[in-house]
Amino acid sequence: MRNKLRLLPVLILAAVTLLGVKVSDIWTAVEARAALPSLSPQAGGGDALPKPVAAEAAPQAKPAPDPLLMSPSEVETLQKLAERRQALERRAQEIAQQEVLLKAANQRLDEKLASLKTLEKDIGTIAAKQDAADDERMKSLVKIYETMKPREAARILEQLDMAVVLDVLEHMKEAKAAPILAAMDPAKAKTVTAGLADRRQQHGAAPQQAAAKPQ
Hints:
The protein is mainly alpha-helical. Among the domains are: 72-133; 148-206, no CATH class. The protein has 6 helices and no strands. The protein has helices spanning 2-35, 72-147, 150-157, 162-171, 174-183, 186-212. The N and C termini lie far apart (167 Å).
């Protein structure tokens, strides 16, 4: 009986020791499990490992050529290309400036042409009015000499310029001009008659020349 009582504490101590070892192992396993990455079950069943994400390759810019690593011929070629580009840019600017100047010159030319046309029209109007006024004065002058006596008219006309005498007698009726010519000095009358003949010949040739021109 005494031996059983002495053996009981030994058994209790062994059981407690064994229980402590089991608890320690269980706790260690739990900690190791917690340290592992959590794996979520997939739809198809089983644990799936995370797939590594592939990094996208970023496009690399082409490095600029290093002048220190270029040959003399390549450097000379680049210089010539740069000079050519500058020359083309200057030429483009010159052409643009010339186009602006040409446009301005054309605009000024159009304005001058418009002014000349207006001036020509005004001059034509003034000339037509002047011709009408001259015709009226000539008719009035011719009427005055036609109402005068032939001798008195001849005496006055002999003192006037030949162009005026020819204008007056040319616009007179032949029945009125003949007595005046007869009353003039014979030399003056001869000169006036020749002038009237030349004028009539010129007036007669003008319509013929106009009719002969091609249409």
